[in-house]
Amino acid sequence: MALSQSPSKPTVTPASVPPGARKLRDTYAITPGAPLVRREFGFYCLERWREQGMPADANHAELFQYDPGGSHGLGQLGWCEAAFSPAFETKIIEDRGDHEVEQDYAGRHVLYFKGRRNGFMPEYMRHPVRDQRSWEEDVLWRLDPTSPSRSADLDARMERAENAAQQGYMITQGLVGGYMYLRSLIGPADLPMMFYDDPAVVHACMRAWFELADAVIAKHQERVTLDEFFMAEDICYKGGMLLSPAMMSEFLMPYYQQLIANVRARQIDRDRHLFIHIDTDGGVDDVIPIYQELGMDVMSPFEVAAGCDVVRTAAEHPGLVMFGGIDKRVLAGTKADIDRMVERILPAMRERGGYIPTCDHGVPEEVPYENYLHYRERCVELGG
Q1: Residue 251 backbone phi and psi in degrees, to 5
Q2: From the centroid of its chain, how far is CA 34?
Q3: Are 108 and 128 in contact (CB under 8 A)?
Q4: Burial of residue 285, with CB atoms counted within 10 A of its CB: 0-12 exposed, 13-18 middle, 19 or more buried
Q5: Which residues of 231-263 are buried (b: 16+ CB within 10 A; e: fewer)?
Q6: 19: preceding bond cis by omega (within 30 degrees)
Q7: What is the pLDDT of residues 252-307, one digit of tens each?
Q8: Collapsing DSSP states into helix, strand and coil, what is residue 109?
Q9: Is 128 in contact with 190 (CB distance < 8 Å)?
């Protein structure tokens, strides 16, 4: 039986709204039977695909039959790293023969193959926040909300956002989530120790995260009403949560709750539903209820290798909008494997509504170009 969305989330889609925006709004309204939005999470494979015959000048939207965009993004608050202004100087700090150590724009010391930056996982050797002193001297001032560079092109950016809103595009405020932000500052290995050894530094980092996000978003909200609040979090791994519920409650949730409350209170259109979108890789079953306490109603990308299954999650959480859930490993298999996967997922999820099929992370180079073309053709066939 098809499941419909709660009437507390109305989505108006007049005829004048661009087709991509209309499809996206129907998806967020969890409209049973609505055509599935055609898009992709991202790519790590384009150079390999060109070797396999993809035209070098290909328009990906046309080639893969993607829909026009349905939203307009407001940035300025980071993605996988803190939103520094100014960023750290990018420079080589050590030559190791076949390798080199670079200080990147986020202040991390990173070991790379010499002259290469893509196609492998680098080794992060040091992060910018190691104690109270490094936080205050090297990092804190780069997160100043009043830095003139943060508002240098504000009027032009907001004029574009106002025009997009008037046309019916969803307005999305994206930002790096608290855990991803802390991980970029302190490092995934040192952060769990700092929770215990120096919690005051962690809270200082989170206060700066909150103050910067609150100030920047407040400026944006003077001009537009937000439709979506999108946090890039990556708080899970294959085995589940990287942080305990108790740690989330102590170090993340108070800042999230206050920021979201402030955003909702500032909306120009107080009746507009604000969708809360959390993006995290890994196994998400245990973290979904925690984020739902914040009001989360959109999630991505449901990594299948970590045990995620969008069909199962759709039944367990009928009010949750979902992106992803297409197994990158299956896309690297045979066309018959792809057929079995999409025939299980797409008809069921289209009947239910509230789903956008994408790879469960960036498409890797192990996926052959011909396989991906076949997958896109099946998405068009089964998704409407």
Answers
A1: -105, -15
A2: 24
A3: yes
A4: middle
A5: bbbbbbeeeebbbeeebbeebbbebbeebbeeb
A6: no
A7: 999 999 999 999 999 999 999 999 999 999 999 999 999 999 999 999 999 999 99
A8: strand
A9: no
Say how far apart CA 205 and CA 140 lie, in whole Å. 8
Q: Where do we find the tokens 């305990």?
A: 244
134 neighbors 128 (Cβ within 8 angstroms): yes
Inter-residue contact 38 to 379 (CB < 8 Å): yes
Pairwise CA distance, residues 360 & 355, whole Å: 13
| Strand pairing category for 240-241 and 321-323 | unpaired
Which residue stretches of the chain are H helix? 19-28, 46-51, 60-63, 132-134, 154-167, 178-186, 190-197, 199-221, 245-251, 253-266, 288-292, 310-316, 328-331, 335-352, 369-383
Tell me the whole-structure pTM to 2 decimals. Answer: 0.93
pLDDT digits (tens, 9 = 90+) for 221-233: 999 999 999 999 9
**Full set of structural domains in the chain with CATH:** 19-86+154-383 (3.20.20.210)
Q: 289: which 2 tokens?
A: 């209820």
